[in-house]
Specification:
By secondary structure, the chain is an alpha/beta fold. It has nine helices and 16 strands. The longest helix is centred in the middle third of the chain and has 13 residues, at about 135-145.
């Protein structure tokens, strides 16, 4: 970004299935806004890190959902961490760090009411505001504790367990005294879950013997299933549920790029096993964010929560491809940050 122009990514065409880099969106350069353009309460926000998340694919569909779809020509929606370069807000002086849903842009004029201050706890780093202390961490927190109602002695299975949300889900379940099985997409991810995050066991769903290994690993049957994937993994979990099991439906990354998403085949097990299957949206818990962040920050400071970031060179020009790679499980975790400061993409 130069002193006189900035770039942003705009939706050009709604994808029918997969995002097509260079076709789905356009990278547009414009004249940079100036301090004189600010109104009372506004700041000039320079993006440092931009979050890339699985839910973004759904925001491109012109259908009814929990947020309106991104419109053709609009800046791609996304949360960001940035620094305030100019300000007419007492809450955010020049040089302060903030986070908000600013979009895929290098610069933006944002009202301070749409931003939050970035507080870095002990053992924390600035990118945690979009990771373990951001939407992915909060999703894990409320999903496993409020929807899943995890308790000591539960057997918990997490799909997408190496993702930014799934990895925190499993660790919180362990903190609460549960036994945890993680499902991931590579042997390296499986090793990371067991050796570094403390999962009791983990399986690679790409292993040809996965269905057999899954049945063996779930002999005691499932109390809580936290689903980020959908598809065949969800079907397998339904077949291994205990009576009155709790199924937390957080995402379905295996179906997001499909023109014809498939629902579960084993849905009749919901009846016979009296399964409680519940979807949720983290935004519903907005009033409880401060309390949840305090607890997550405490666990982070105590070393009870671990996280990982993957760096991909390229900056904003590579954000669209990085999002495609996220769905293809190219990265260690299934959420990301695009760093403009270092011209990199960071996946927390």
């Amino acid at each position: 970004m130069s002193a006189t122009t900035y770039k942003s990514v705009h939706l050009a065409k709604r994808p029918q299935d997969r995002i097509v880099p260079g076709e789905t969106s356009n990278l547009i350069a414009r004249d940079a806004p100036k301090e004189s353009n600010l109104k009372d309460g506004e700041v000039l926000f320079q993006t440092l890190y931009l979050s890339l998340d699985p839910a973004m694919r759904g925001w491109l569909n012109d259908t009814r959902s929990y947020v309106p779809p991104v419109q053709i020509g609009e800046v791609m929606r996304g949360a960001a961490i940035g620094v305030v370069k100019a300000s007419r807000s007492d809450a955010f002086p020049i040089g302060s760090y903030a986070t908000g849903t600013v979009g895929w842009t290098e610069l933006a004029i944002v009202h301070s009411k749409n931003l939050e201050k970035v507080d870095i706890p002990k053992n924390g780093r600035i990118t945690d505001a979009l990771g373990v202390l951001g939407m992915t961490g909060l999703t894990a927190y409320f999903g496993i504790l409020d929807v899943g109602r995890v308790k000591a002695g539960d057997f918990v299975v997490v799909s997408g367990a190496a993702g930014a949300t799934g990895s925190v889900v499993g660790q919180i379940a362990k903190i609460k005294g549960a036994t945890v099985l993680g499902i991931a997409g590579s042997d390296d991810k499986v090793a990371w879950l067991k050796e570094e995050l403390g999962f009791d066991d983990a399986l690679n769903y790409k292993d040809p013997s996965f269905p057999k290994k899954f049945r063996e690993a779930t002999k005691s049957l499932i109390d809580v299933f936290f689903d980020n994937v959908g598809g065949e993994v969800l079907d397998l979990a339904l077949s291994r549920a205990k009576p009155h099991a709790r199924f937390v439906i957080c995402g379905a990354i295996s179906q997001y790029n499909s023109a014809k998403p498939q629902g579960p085949k084993n849905y009749l097990n919901i009846i016979s096993m009296r399964i409680r299957m519940e979807g949720f949206i983290v935004f519903d818990y907005a009033k409880q964010y401060p309390e949840a962040r305090r607890q997550l920050a405490q666990w982070l400071a105590e070393g009870k929560l671990q996280r990982k970031e993957t760096i991909v060179k390229g900056g904003l020009a590579k954000a669209e491809q990085a999002l495609v790679d996220l769905y293809d499980s190219v990265n260690t975790v299934e959420s990301g940050l695009s760093s403009f400061r270092d011209n990199t993409l960071i996946f927390p």
